[in-house]
Amino acid sequence: MKTKNGKTGRPIGFDKDAALEAAMLLFWERGYEGTSMADLTQAMGLNPSSIYAAFGDKQALFQIAARRYVEMRAQYAGKALEQPTLEKVVRALFHNTVAFLTAPGHPPTCMTLAGAVGCSVEAKPARDLMAEIRKQNEVALRERFLLARKSGELPKEIGVDDYTRYLSTIIAGLSIQAANGSTKAELKRTAQMALRHLGY
């Protein structure tokens, strides 16, 4: 809209939280490279100058959106790690992941996998950010599995690092299958098969 001096400015009632939510969902769905500033202005209901003023450039906005995703959407794994036994942790990881991937209101995949699958030089900071978030998630898994090792739940012949990578790989695979169109029932069967192979 135009202000009194005739310049284009923020719309009345600008809701920064709602605008950021819209940006996050768009990046989540289309990835960093697949999302243009024109797409963002339309989804957020803001003109480019307002986006720059409130959030910075596209890379800065992506970083803020990624932080929002981690803090407000991707808590399903962290909640699973709070379970009291290793078996309950592993079961909750699969259950929570399937529930998250098939919940309405957001793309059926993990933003850390889909958010930065580009190959241009411009996309490298976004790719690096997503990789760093995934590594932090693996660190949290590893710390929980170390506790399971100390309590005797994780056998000594199973390497903690290998177990962490193995579970991370399967969980990421569920996200890929969901993005490919697998149904909730199909993902549940896949998760149940994985749990049987893990001895649960």
- Number of beta strands: 0
Question: What spatial form do the alpha-carbon principal axes imply?
Answer: elongated
| Percent range for β-strand residues | under 5%
Oligomer: single chain
Describe the structure in your own words.
It is elongated, with a radius of gyration of 20 Å. The protein is mainly alpha-helical. The protein has helices at residues 16-30, 37-44, 48-55, 58-73, 76-80, 86-101, 111-114, 124-150, 160-179, 184-197. The model is unreliable at 1-8 (pLDDT under 50).
Please give a quick description of this structure.
This protein has 200 residues and is mainly α. The chain has helices at 16-30, 37-44, 48-55, 58-73, 76-80, 86-101, 111-114, 124-150, 160-179, 184-197.
Keywords, separated by commas or semicolons:
200 residues, 66% helix
Helices and strands, with pairings:
Blueprint: H1 16-30, H2 37-44, H3 48-55, H4 58-73, H5 76-80, H6 86-101, H7 111-114, H8 124-150, H9 160-179, H10 184-197
